[in-house]
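URGENT: need a sanity check before tomorrow's submission.

F., can you look over the DUF3021 domain-containing protein record below? I want to be sure the sequence and structure line up before it goes out.
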Amino acid sequence: MHWFSQIIKLIRNVMIGFGMGAIATAVYLFIALRLQLPMLSTGLMLKELLGSMAFGAYCGTISLIFEWGMQKVRKDNVVSFLFWRTALNFLLMITGFWIAGKWLGWFETDLSTLFWLLGSFLFVYILIWLFSYLYQKKLAKQLNEGLKKL
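Structure tokens as predicted:
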């Protein structure tokens, strides 16, 4: 039944990714309306919505990298495990972002844009990683304090 729980997690992450992609598109539309930017055609907006949702699902799926195989990691090897999983996650995320961005026309491909894109992506990735790390550290502290009370 272990495979069944993995499939449930995959479906959950894909659905969360769909939702995040849809929310990102809705935020863009709201900003575009408020700033009175030229509106895109319905066909192009549908492509953007579906592309954003697909990229969100991809991100949700890629996040499972941290869960798969974690049960088999020795206690003294956790830092190495998480480092390599984070590096792999980053490479897959930037590759997926590049492919989605090229397909959906989110950015140009000149050299300055590529550097700006990589820098921005790295900054956001590090921010998300830092907040996740601090949250997990706080959670571990609370669990340890709860165990001491037992």
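My own read: DSSP finds four helices and no strands in the chain. Residues 2-106 form one domain. If you see anything odd, call me.
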